[in-house]
Amino acid sequence: MSTEHEVNLNPFMYSYNILKDNIKNQPIDYLQLHEIQMKIGKLGEAFVYEIECEKLKGTKFELEIDNKKALDPKNGYDILSFTIEGEPIHIEVKATTGTEETFYLSKNEFRTAEEMKKKGKVYVIYFVRDIMSDNPNLNIIKDITNNEEYSFEEMNWKVSKIL
User: Fold this and answer.
1) What is the CATH number of the domain that holds 38?
2) What pTM did the predictor assign?
3) Of the residues 7, 92, 105, 138, which has the fewest C-beta atoms closer than 10 A?
């Protein structure tokens, strides 16, 4: 006969394979996935904004950092910041909860980077990995349009019906 204490020590548990099969067999909720990705993106932007505020603390440029750029994806970047000397920096933030060295860049973001380079403006990517940890990893990528450390793979196609 089992006692109440024994029942608490042996709760009903699923095996690894049963849990994995349950997850695999569930349909993906793409709306929920997109919402989570948006929250991770906003978290990355907040992290970078705070870093930029700290970097410019006590300078006249601290109050000029503009994180509202992220509200309009047509900008091609998320934050307008500055160097200590006051040179504008156009920052595109990429964030992930993982530690992988991969992120996605839209055609508009890449085109914006190219246009800014032609105009002599500074466009950088702040890639934040492990954003949910107590110690996120920040990698600042300069000139993504001509950076031998990264490769590009086309991922999407726009498909339109011919009228």
Assistant:
1) 3.40.1350
2) 0.79
3) 7
